[in-house]
Specification:
Blueprint (H helix, E strand, L loop, with lengths): L3 H15 L5 E7 L7 H13 L1 H7 L4 H19 L2 H7 L2 H18 L10 E7 L4 E6 L1 H4 L4 H16 L3 H19 L14 E3 L1
Parallel strand pairs: 1-2, 1-4
Antiparallel strand pairs: 2-3
Length: about 200
């Protein structure tokens, strides 16, 4: 999803931002936040339940034949809808966003961003399959920064990913986050380099 050169650029951008602040920035990009394996099966079940009705009304097929047809509809629909190109299109948008948000929160805690000395960890997260991005800031920062600041950083990140320039998107988001961290958390006030300066690819 992102080249080695872009990962180096992201690392350098994090270091440059953290040189001006005591806040900590960490980046994660995921190919997908869930496999959504049950969604195609749910659609297949619905189609299989509906399939017999036209046959019951307009045909004289015996019950055994209709049952076999119903099983065939389920099997075919499950196989077709499970193809990744189709599967992610039939998942409701809200469910994809909810799952991606849950993954962002999981990554925030999994990498210990809530353990910084003054609660100044910031996670920049993107999930490609869900077309979702989010910035999760710990309590020490969130209490001082308006939502608009994070929205602007997320917009920059999404714009870069949408244009196939994920590296540029992350660098732009890091710079925006770094600017607000510099304003509220100047360098030297807290312990430095509490988190690795890197982009994790899942």
């Amino acid at each position: 999803m992102i080249s080695g050169n872009d990962k180096k650029r992201v690392t350098n951008a994090i270091r440059a931002a953290e040189a001006k602040t005591s806040g900590e920035i960490f980046c994660v990009i995921a190919r997908q936040s869930s496999t959504y394996r049950l969604v195609p099966l749910a659609w297949a079940c619905a189609l299989a339940l509906l399939a017999p009705f036209p046959l019951l009304v307009f045909s004289t097929w015996p019950a055994s034949a209709i049952y076999i047809f119903q099983l065939a509809v389920f099997a075919l629909a499950a196989v077709v809808l499970s193809h990744p190109a189709i599967r992610f299109r039939i998942v409701p948008r809200q469910r994809k966003h909810d799952r991606a948000h849950a993954e962002a929160m999981h990554q925030f805690f999994a990498h210990g961003l809530e353990k910084t000395e003054q609660r100044t960890g910031v996670l920049i997260f993107a999930s490609a399959a869900e077309r979702y991005a989010e910035i999760v800031a710990d309590a020490g920062i969130n209490d001082r920064v308006s939502k608009q600041v994070w929205d602007d950083a997320v917009a920059a990140l999404i714009a870069g990913i949408r244009e196939g320039r994920a590296g540029d998107g992350f660098v732009a988001a890091i710079e925006k986050c770094g600017a607000v961290l510099t304003e509220h958390f100047p360098p030297g006030a807290l312990q430095r380099d509490e988190l690795p300066d890197k982009l994790v690819e899942l």
